[in-house]
């Protein structure tokens, strides 16, 4: 018997069983909501890990465009038949000593001395981020900064396919020869699709020209913004309708040491002024080294805020609290020197929210966004712990609340959801009346079932929970063998019924990490995988999306024998009311390997639509995964479901190893 036949016969058997015996009754009190569900409930966690930003959502195709990587020509190959000694030199303005030249944020550039006529005489090839994704017929914008020193040199930009053949080209003739730096751009179209393309720059003429910020962007960025983001990746987020976007991480907020911490003010303005730092994921894992991983900050704070606005998500920036990563250097800023860090937080609120007459509101307006971003919540520290964190947090809390009493602060409970460090922080944070406590759990799949009642006993008053980073690990944390398989996703779906049921306590939740480049990742599992041209959502993505687009506004009780369905018969369930849509939303995970039938009694309703919608996510194979080739292997299927409008119930026939979401229009 094949799998489909087997499933159909099991369902038929279950249906006839259902006719023979009444199904156990599960009661939903539709007219008695027990808690609000915050609009922020389900969100996303973004970090520049796994080439998530540079080499990922930031659509720049040239790697090391500014020659600021530790090895200034990393990513570039210089070659040619007519090479001469010193024809390509790396120069450093910061070292030049002349104040007119000093550019401390982006000191390096290259000096090209050309005496060439043809491609092949002197060429610079950029390999991109594990190649460049090039699309047939699409426009590409090639831009750079130049300074003509002498002579006449034209620049040719060729897109190359994997075999090195041109698939698009343009010519840039420097317009100004006044010996100053200028920006110039040309555009041209590609004549082929190539996932592993390259960019070749070659020179025609004789002379000397300085070059910096050599850049290539596709036309089809998100909303067509020049220098913007990969539209296919943003679309995956937009489709989730996330309640918030947490940015920019993660450990990169803390930095390996304090010099490499994330500093939002350095991510604003012209890309050439944004000082690059080494990405801590470059060298963090000896088993997954990524020596070409740097943060250019082309995707900076303005762009993050803009992204949130575009997709209707609340911005949730996380700032360094005066502590570097405690797994790395654990550097601390002395308490009497914390002011600049606190000021960064105060200024960020002004940048996000204040009117254009203020210092930082004006900066926002000058950058093209006079309208405030309406920031309501801000994180202080990422995975920081110990009394040193509490001391620093207290200083932030006092200063921020004095100026912005309504700003809610996300506070760290460390790296783990239990243990001494967690208990210490949780106790202290609650005593400090922390607004939101950020809990992280990277745990085995079974942990998620065992902890479905975790929040049932949390205090209803006082601090709320932000389940800020979590994902079921099919192997173990930081193992390269972790898979985004259906087992993990299904157990996460079951666990999330416990989050929803406890929305009075848990006000925000996000899976982590978000993106991974299949050719350059450090950490797995991840919600969404990409290569240079493609993107796919994992089974975990579809679980997150089902929750997020079926959020509801109020928690309803959903009980069998007066108990929440939280593991009985391997069923996990929650219910919500969506006030705006006037719909009941039921979520049920059946983690068992048998069909189970439940009669869901919708108490307190006056009228029900006879047909609801069922979104069914299931797979018989718990090891099933999605892939570029089979992107929707595990993905939801929508089908109608009948409602008994007289007796006010819906019968759910729950397939083995399935997650079902049902929406039914109702009047009360
Ligand atoms: O999500 C990956 C990493 O896990 C984050 O950077 C960090 O906060 C956590 O340890």
TrEMBL record:
Pfam families linked: Alpha-L-AF_C (PF06964), ASD1_dom (PF22848)
The entry's keywords: Glycoprotein, Hydrolase, Signal
Region Disordered, residue ranges: 89-108
Gene3D superfamilies associated with the record: Glycosidases (3.20.20.80), Golgi alpha-mannosidase II (2.60.40.1180)
Catalytic activity: Hydrolysis of terminal non-reducing alpha-L-arabinofuranoside residues in alpha-L-arabinosides
InterPro entries: Alpha-L-AF_C, ASD1_cat, GH, Glyco_hydro_b, Glycosyl_Hydrolase_51
Alpha-L-arabinofuranosidase C-terminal domain ranges (all copies): 468-658
UniProt EC number: 3.2.1.55
Signal sequence range: 1-20
Composition bias type Polar residues, residue spans: 93-108
Protein family: Belongs to the glycosyl hydrolase 51 family.
Protein name per its UniProtKB record: non-reducing end alpha-L-arabinofuranosidase
Source organism per UniProt: Fibrivirga algicola
